[in-house]
Design brief:
single chain; alpha/beta; Udp-n-acetylmuramoylalanyl-d-glutamate--2,6- Diaminopimelate Ligase, Chain: A, domain 1; UDP-N-acetylmuramoyl-L-alanine:D-glutamate ligase; Protein-Tyrosine Phosphatase, Chain A; 11-stranded mixed β-sheet; 15 helices; globular
Length: about 475
């Protein structure tokens, strides 16, 4: 493909041959093949221009730069490197997003669960649906483990092109605040978007809550239909900012779509889905009031996109399992329960603990830590939440990354002032401690890692799947 054919919509100056043949696109100099176009992206920790000589040595035919490099290769000088990367990548892969019905979900919590519910509804309607999110990317029967919630734009458009080739017609995807701020989805036309909620997270990146909110709001600048949770104060603000048609959802009026007569159970919930003249009973197979909100968001955008009520009901009622989200683990006949959940943010931890307190026959025992090199402000907040809502808390390590685990734990316990907690730094030992000391009727919450199958320590991913860990501990105790 000729270079000039890739530059539609990009502000640029070409230094060299506009007819340079491009064989591939990449932002990783280690992945450059002869004939590739290499994006020199200025990041927060590194500048891609530094790797331009390596890319050229590997055979790069063209560089996308914001500053001309003294290298013997065609260069395109752009004003905005990330927007250029998004547009050029889309063009190289044949603008696949324009051939798909794109539905994006953003918010602090609930993105993964909402996309699973969306996928189920759309498949009940006969659509062929791809999924991009925190757990994995799914293309037909193929599952690709996710490295980040929303891929970088060259990776994203490559995935979308593969989905087109596989005959899919719709994509549901989680859209993170990072990806919106960093233009990973720039130029993608979204048929629908869902705003789930906004709470404490990622302030290490965004700086403050307002910037975090404004990053989320970017999705709704390019959505035909916006389903917005207006029980959330930021959702109410977003209603007036969305460019497309808006429908509000929540548990009470003035929401356009509501859940009424909500009955919460240990294995799910029942409620009446209400919209206009429609009053439809729903039997949802995943527990928690927050899951009712996620179901409302999925139903709301699907109604806006023209799907009928019965299809929405069948799709929601078909969902019984979401990896690492309120997932009950096998205790091999133990008189206690173990629940696995990805809740690694204050609001999410609070929601899950409140739900468990509502049905636990014994104590709620919470095991959690906080990730290293991430928003440290939330650590004492989560400590306070766990202390207030759990009967007993075991503070442990999560993904410490390049921080010292005990330093993170000390930040957490700074928000804890009672005696109903202990510290067990090693996460496996923390889980073992909880199981060994479990009482009849206890519910043990393994919070924070959910679907993850590793612990990240000093740049290394060590195998750590909590479902496997629990099984191994039970094996040891049965010997």
């Amino acid at each position: 493909m000729k270079l000039s054919a890739l530059l539609k919509g990009v502000e640029y100056e070409i230094i060299g041959d506009p007819d340079t043949e491009i064989c591939g696109v990449t932002y990783d100099s280690r992945a450059v093949c002869p004939g590739d176009l290499f994006f020199c992206i200025k990041g927060y920790t590194s500048d891609g221009h530094k790797y331009a000589p390596n890319a050229v040595a590997a055979g790069a035919a063209c560089l996308i730069v914001t500053q001309k490099q003294d290298l013997p290769v065609t260069q395109v000088v752009v004003k905005d490197d990330r927007k250029a990367m998004a547009l050029i990548s889309a063009a190289f892969y044949g603008n696949p997003a324009h051939k798909l019905r794109m539905i994006g979900v953003t918010g602090t919590s609930g993105k993964t669960s909402t996309t699973y519910m969306l996928k189920s509804i759309l498949e009940c309607a006969g659509s062929k649906v791809g999924l991009i999110g925190t757990v994995y990317t799914q293309i037909g029967d193929k599952q690709i483990p996710a490295e980040r919630t929303t891929p970088e734009s060259p990776d994203l458009h490559k995935i979308l092109a593969e989905m087109v080739s596989a005959g899919l017609d719709t994509v549901v995807m989680e859209v993170s605040s990072h990806s919106l701020y960093l233009d990973r989805v720039y130029g993608i036309p979204f048929a629908g978007g869902i705003f789930t909620n906004l709470s404490q997270d990622h302030l290490d990146f965004h700086g403050d809550f307002e910037n975090y909110f404004l990053a989320k709001a970017i999705l709704f600048e390019n959505c035909n239909y916006a389903a917005i949770n207006t029980q959330d104060a930021y959702g109410r603000r977003l209603v007036d900012m969305a460019a497309g048609k808006v429908s509000r959802f929540g548990l009470s009026e003035p929401a356009d779509m509501r859940a009424e007569q909500v009955e919460l159970r240990t294995d799910g919930s029942r409620f009446t889905l209400t919209s206009g003249d429609m009053h439809m009973p729903i039997d949802l197979g995943v527990p928690g009031e927050f899951m009712v909100y996620n179901a409302l968001g999925a139903a709301c955008v699907c109604e806006m996109l023209g799907f009928d009520a019965d299809t929405i009901r069948k799709g929601l009622e078909a969902v019984h399992y979401i990896p690492g989200r309120v997932e009950n683990l096998d205790t091999r006949g133990g008189d206690y329960s173990i629940v696995l959940d990805y809740c690694h943010k204050p609001e999410a931890l609070e929601s899950v603990l409140k739900m468990l307190k509502g049905y636990a026959k014994g104590r709620v025992v919470c095991i959690f830590g906080c990730g290293g090199n991430r928003d440290a402000v939330k650590r004492p907040i989560m400590g306070e939440i766990a202390e207030r809502l759990a009967d007993f808390t075991i503070v442990t390590s999560d993904n410490p990354r390049f921080e010292e685990p005990m330093a993170i734990i000390e930040d957490i316990t700074a928000g804890m002032h009672q005696e109903n907690h202990t510290v067990v730094e090693d996460r496996r030992e923390a889980i073992r401690y909880a199981i060994v000391n479990a009482r009849p009727g206890d519910v043990i919450l393994l919070a924070g890692k959910g679907h993850e199958d590793y612990q990240e320590i000093k740049g290394v991913h060590y195998p750590f799947d909590e479902k496997v860990v629990v099984g191994e501990i039970l094996d040891e105790l049965e010997r």
